[in-house]
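The following block was generated as part of the benchmark described in Methods. Ligand: zinc ion.
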Amino acid sequence: MPRILLSILVLLVAQHATAAQPAAKKATPVAKIVVVQPQADQQLTGTADVRIKVEVPEGATDPNAVYVGLGGAPWTGLKQDSGEWTAQIDTTLVPNGTQKLIVTTDNKRANTSINVTVANPLKVFFADLHAHTSYSDGTLIPAVAHEYARNIAKLDVFCLTDHQAAVDDNEWLDMREVAFDANEDGTFVAFPGLEWTKKWGHINIYDPKTRIWPADPQEFYKAAAEAGVTTKFNHPGDGTVSHDGLAYSEVGDKSVELMEVRQAKEEQAFIRALNLGWHLAPDGSDDTHSPNWGNVKSWTGILAPGLTKRNILDALARRHCYSTLDRNCVLTFTVNGASMGDIISEPVKEVKAAVVVDDGDENDATAKIELFEDGVVVQTHEADTTDCRWETTCTPKPGKHYFFVKLTQADGNLLWSAPVWVTVAE
Ligand SMILES: [Zn+2]
Ligand SMILES: [Zn+2]
């Protein structure tokens, strides 16, 4: 095209664009939402007051509805009250850490958000995260399993994990619907799961968006890491054969957070995996194939600020859990204040371990607590009480280490905490 013609064309297009502009409507003024309370970056615990001021310029209208949420649901409606909108929110319903306090109104242009820090103490909730129905090789149907887990076994958290290859589209739809229906934050948390089942080894997948997963283990690791789902090595035996002898995989370490640890052999597998470099928390789910969902012999204690699906999924992703052969033994283990499951990134000078045990049953006294450093017992605390506290200090050699505790009750029941990983400064 000759240059002159091109210039004319550009000119015409430009004129057209300018000509179109006056026709565009001047934006109508919009109410401005100002968060009065809390303040940006404020630390919130428990029930928190929220106060919103609405500045309405001339020509703008007041909102008819205002909602607030911490990073999303649950949403709390605010009430208009002498020039302000107010509400109280329960901050224990969402995970600890930085959260966006989002204010949304019936005018999509009149929204705002600020960052706050949520910091609530962790409580323990008891879960079974590995169970089957007739959708694979167990009995009965998901609706019955959830009813049983909630009302008979009285679990706090339940996840049904039928074998992935056995589940068809109708069954997968039902598994998800039943879990979503059964979930009631504050009372009972349920989410759907699947057991990826290969000769190579079995892996549970929690709350996956799809039932289609690659058959090759390395491809599976990649897909799981990309999907951001939490997964678990199931029944690893002593760890020398299952899951390729637990050969370390960097992408695998990003996708697998849990491993079943319920007896001596699986403890060996757990230590083997940790020594190979995996970052895993022990899980005590039972893998029942009978109609006794949750009324089993081992469970998982999950540490979370409150019983909500968001909190529980977040806690599992952060490895904030322990395996327990006792149905109600509360165990916390911290290193330098960091929860079990955490990786302390700042180098430390010494390791201050603290264990708190509380079992509501008179007969379930703690007999001993063993502190493991890099898979070896380095200190033992003998006890004879149902509520037991132990604090101790170690000064390991410079470099990377992990610590966890194993608790033995007077009746022989065992509990394993998730490790805390530390780097000891030179
Ligand atoms: Zn299995
Ligand atoms: Zn299974």
